Structure formats: structure tokens, C-alpha cells
TrEMBL record:
<feature type="domain" description="Ig-like">
    <location>
        <begin position="199"/>
        <end position="291"/>
    </location>
</feature>
<protein>
    <submittedName>
        <fullName>Major histocompatibility complex class I-related gene protein-like isoform X1</fullName>
    </submittedName>
</protein>
<dbReference type="InterPro" id="IPR037055">
    <property type="entry name" value="MHC_I-like_Ag-recog_sf"/>
</dbReference>
<dbReference type="InterPro" id="IPR011162">
    <property type="entry name" value="MHC_I/II-like_Ag-recog"/>
</dbReference>
<feature type="transmembrane region" description="Helical">
    <location>
        <begin position="300"/>
        <end position="323"/>
    </location>
</feature>
<keyword id="KW-0393">Immunoglobulin domain</keyword>
<feature type="signal peptide">
    <location>
        <begin position="1"/>
        <end position="18"/>
    </location>
</feature>
<keyword id="KW-1133">Transmembrane helix</keyword>
<dbReference type="InterPro" id="IPR003006">
    <property type="entry name" value="Ig/MHC_CS"/>
</dbReference>
<dbReference type="InterPro" id="IPR007110">
    <property type="entry name" value="Ig-like_dom"/>
</dbReference>
<dbReference type="GO" id="GO:0009897">
    <property type="term" value="C:external side of plasma membrane"/>
</dbReference>
<dbReference type="InterPro" id="IPR036179">
    <property type="entry name" value="Ig-like_dom_sf"/>
</dbReference>
<dbReference type="InterPro" id="IPR050208">
    <property type="entry name" value="MHC_class-I_related"/>
</dbReference>
<dbReference type="InterPro" id="IPR003597">
    <property type="entry name" value="Ig_C1-set"/>
</dbReference>
<dbReference type="InterPro" id="IPR001039">
    <property type="entry name" value="MHC_I_a_a1/a2"/>
</dbReference>
<keyword id="KW-0732">Signal</keyword>
<keyword id="KW-0812">Transmembrane</keyword>
Amino acid sequence: MIRMTVLWILCWVQAAAAGTHSLRCFGVATSEGSELPEYVHVDMVDDVQLSYYDSTMEKPVLQQDWLNNTMGHEFWDRQTWYILSDHDIIKRSLRNAIQHFNHTGVHTYQGIGGCELDDDGTRRAYWYHAYDGKDFISLDVKTLTWVASVPQAVYYKSKQEADTALQQILFHYYRQECFQTLKGYIQYGMKTLQRKVRPEVMLIQRKARKSAGTDVICHVTGFYPREVEVNWIRDGEHVLEEGVWSGEVLPNGDTTYQLRKTLTVSPEDQKKHSYSCQVDHASLDEKMDVKWVPEAGLNMWLVAGGVLAALGLISMIIGALIWKKRASGERVGGGVKSCFSNATFLFPS
């Protein structure tokens, strides 16, 4: 049952690369004057949500049944302590930033931290902060020094480094405990983390908006894991890039994903060539090819438009909230620029 829908400005992080597992925690504090909870926190392993907490709750709740049966109460008590500690740190940081800048109105302070573990044993850890959606300060885990992303954050760098008790907690967590916890999740959550769900594919056509041609939407949905390759193929062999528009890989409400790729075909090309949508995914023994059979007439466009609207409800809601501004920089774990400029909805169970 969905308790609430929370608008949470955070970094939309891509799934970890193949052969890599990740543990991430996201937290955002919001100043008074907003209808949102003053604090929201989510933990995720790979792209699976593990826990949820907001400031209207007494304590965090687990989102995966296998956690209750494997990790034990002592483990969960410690994770609860970390979540509530993050609440205090980020809420205090928001209050200090508002006072320092002498700001009024609604503001946010965000944190994203975690670790990544490659199959070859390579390890990475990170802890970033942002104020009002912009990079503010980050922790260099290797040296345990803070890096100010903007001149205004130099004050906070000095303040954080002077807090020796906090430094020791961070040192222990990001050097050791985060990786130990991640290994436990990988061991006990293998069935969930490594499950494979086949995609469903539907082709929908409509009249192109800016030309005399036809838009054909390849709607791929219900797949897991997140990584998928979708291409439009002409005459069974040519992979098309021109005239193709790709949407985002978006989450469905059931922990699976969806993606759309739209091909615009001119009336002339429609008569001369054949087209198919090709899908490659870990759940498939071989690539899936779905051939487009053109259907002419406005009636088909209207029917397809109705189907498209129904299928795309979740996509439109989430897509409208994913800010298209993309940051230049390396992936999380190697340093991120403007990581916090995106937004999404969270649906705690």
C-alpha cells in the first residue's frame, strides 16, 4: 500500500555497470514552508530499494522481506542508527546553510553516499552534499578531507574537518562497514538482485507531428535488470540512428523498467523498406525482433493514441519530473558534477 507520494529532489543515478554492485543512501532535508516531510531517506542496493524513512515516522521501515529473515535485528538496529544520524547531519547542514546565506523561503539540502564493489575486488566510496540542487561539498574518502565545490562551501569544509568524532565515524563506515554491508546484501539478496524478467514489446503508430510521415513507437516494458538495448532495424540489417528518438529508461511501479524508442518514417521509405524493433536483454536467449506492419488511416492513429496514453501514464508522470539537464563528469564513485540537478518520485510501500 502506498502511504504517500514524496517529491524528492535527488541525483538520478544510473544503474551500476555490469560486474559492479553498489550500496547507496539518499537523503534530503527541506525547510519549513513546504508540504513535504522535513526529511526523507532511502537506501538502495544496486537498483533495489531496501528501506524508507521520513521525518513523519518513528523509525525506518524495510522494503525487502529477505532482509528481515537474513541480516538480523542487531544489524538493522545499526542501520537505523545510521539513517537517523544522517537525518541529524543533513537537517543541521540545511539550517546552517540557510543562516549562512541569509536565505528565506523553501530550500533543500541533499546527501548521497555509498560504495561500489567490482567483481575484481576494486572498491570505491563517496559522500556528496548539495544545497538547492547544486553541488556544495564532498568527502574525499581516500584522504578523509572535504572538498568545497563552490567558494561559499569553504567555511563548511573547515567546520566538517574540525569535527573529529564525525570524521572517525565516516572513516570507519566508508572504509570498512559500507563494503561489509554490501557484501551481506549481495550474499542474502542474490535471488532478488540477480533475477531476470523478460520484456514485453508493443509497436504503436501515430501520425508524425512535424512531417507527413509516421511515428512508430517501440514500447519495451516490464524488464529487469535495468540494462537494455533497443534499436530500430531497416530491412533486417541496418541499425538506424537518424530519425530515431530515445526516451529514458524509467521505473514501473513493480520494480521493473520501461523504455520507448520512436522512429519517424516518411511515406516514401514506408513503401520501399521494412522496419523492426530489436531488443537485447539479459533475460533473452537471443535478440527479440518485432516487425512493424504499417496500418494506414486516421482511425488507427486515434486508437493507437488512446493505447499510448494508457500505457504511458507512469512514464509521463515520472518523465515530467526528470529534469533533462545532464551534467558532465564521471560516474558516481569517480566524481560527479552537478549530480543533484535531477528529480524523481519515490513511492514507499
